[in-house]
Amino acid sequence: MNPASILTLSRLVSAPVFAVAFIRGFRDTSTLWLWLALGFASLIELSDLFDGIVARARKEVTNFGKLVDPMSDSLSRQTVFISFLVCGIIPWWMFLVFLYRDSIMSTMRIMIAYSGTVQAAKISGKIKAVVQATGSYLVIGVCLSHAHDIAVIPRTLWGKHPGFWIMLVPAVVTILSAFDYLVPSWPVIRSTMRNEKPR
What we know:
Elements: H1 3-28, H2 31-57, H3 63-86, H4 92-114, H5 123-147, H6 162-193
Helix pairs in contact: 1-2, 1-3, 2-3, 2-5, 3-4, 4-6, 5-6
């Protein structure tokens, strides 16, 4: 177990702790729990940022890391989003947008790899990750402002929690990112479904 793998796996530990802290803080309007949630959200993002850097710097890029890193990314992000869902900040359909995109992408990577083709990373995927992380931080920040009774931040905006409008942007970017991956890869996916070699 190398340092990069430890960083990757740390997200699987940090994510459920975030969920407990955020849900508790939101329901009790507790600044302590919400600050704790912000801390664990930061640990998730920092580990995502540095595990690849550490692996390349130490020349310890492994197949384990290549497989577990996207899984840890997806599970930790979905844990954040399901926490928002449980608290009523985002609706079920928005959570499904995030969940289905990750599930479809994971299956698509397997199908493409099975065909002998390498799925290159796209800029839209990196933009999606940054926008999702930024949105999550902003939602936590709004909840903290409510807990601290900062009057300038409204409790509702056009009948919904401000976090809904914040996360609407990542939801749209997530959908666009999915199409950016799916459309160019469709011939390979279709060939795989037909058990043919891609042209």
